[in-house]
């Protein structure tokens, strides 16, 4: 296996082509990443790194995720590889508990630490979604509300959306969009980021889906 690139060399190359402002941001990010490489968690996810960097006056999570933040992402990738991991958020205690003995056997057979980290994350995500599916199945009883409700004229008439507006709503709640942002949709329609922080309140996705159906 080839030796990973030295982050210091990559930093110098990135700074050569950067503006004074971007160079300062890269140097702050570099210091944050160096501390992360020495931490117990070895967490190089953009959400975590962006939060720590922002606290030090460096680029924020959103700045790093933007298309113009490729140089920041490149530096993170280099530091992650140099430390023997990836940008993928490390498994939490709960995720590790979801790994059964057979899964662990698969991971133990993978020598490359980077590939092992990626496969471990994929297995944990699979198990998490399987658990969520089981919860949905267990609560799949349909309750018919027979009570009489007084509807306003606005509700009776519904909301007329143009095709462009319908497509915009559909994209906003699509799996591709949520995956690109590393967000998770909960069964209640709530949306959280990869750190478990709430992005949209409960019922958000469910309400927009109902709007598309009607």
List the helices and strands and how they pair.
Blueprint: H1 7-16, H2 20-38, H3 46-55, H4 61-65, H5 70-83, H6 93-98, H7 101-108, H8 113-138, H9 153-157, H10 163-172, H11 175-180, E1 184-185, E2 191-192, E3 198-200, H12 204-213
Antiparallel strand pairs: 1-2, 2-3
Helix pairs in contact: 1-2, 1-5, 2-3, 2-5, 7-8
Describe what this molecule looks like in 3D.
The chain has about 210 residues and is mainly α. Helices cover about 60% and strands about 5% of the residues. The protein has 12 helices and 3 strands, in the order αααααααααααβββα. It has helices spanning about 5-15, 20-40, 45-55, 60-65, 70-85, 95-100, 100-110, 115-140, 155, 165-170, 175-180, 205-214; strands spanning about 185, 190, 200. A 3-stranded antiparallel sheet has the order 1-2-3, with no helix packed on it. A hairpin with a 5-residue loop joins β2 (about 190) and β3. α1 runs antiparallel to α2 (about 20-40). The longest helix is centred in the middle third of the chain and has 26 residues, at about 115-140. The protein is globular, with a radius of gyration of 22 Å. About 15% of the residues are buried. Residues about 140-145 and about 150-155 have low confidence and may be disordered.
């Amino acid at each position: 296996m080839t030796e990973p690139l030295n982050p210091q060399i990559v930093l110098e190359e990135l700074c050569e082509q950067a503006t004074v402002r971007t160079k300062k941001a890269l140097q702050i990010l570099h210091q944050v990443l160096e501390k992360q490489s020495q931490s117990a968690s070895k967490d190089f996810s953009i959400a975590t790194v962006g939060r720590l960097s922002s606290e030090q006056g460096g680029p924020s999570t959103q700045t790093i995720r933007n298309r113009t933040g490729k140089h920041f992402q490149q530096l993170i990738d280099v530091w992650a590889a140099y430390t023997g991991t990836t940008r993928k958020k490390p498994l939490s205690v709960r995720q590790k508990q979801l790994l059964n003995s057979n899964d662990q056997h698969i991971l133990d057979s993978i020598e490359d630490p980077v590939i092992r980290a990626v496969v471990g994350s994929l297995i944990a995500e699979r198990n998490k979604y399987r658990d969520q599916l089981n919860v949905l199945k267990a609560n799949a009883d349909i309750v018919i509300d027979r009570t009489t409700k007084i509807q306003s004229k606005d509700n009776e008439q519904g909301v007329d959306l143009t095709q462009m507006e319908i497509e915009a709503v559909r994209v906003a709640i699509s799996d591709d969009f949520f995956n690109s942002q590393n967000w998770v949709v909960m069964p209640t329609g709530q949306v959280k980021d990869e750190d478990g922080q709430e992005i949209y309140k409960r019922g958000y996705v469910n309400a927009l889906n109902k709007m598309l159906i009607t």
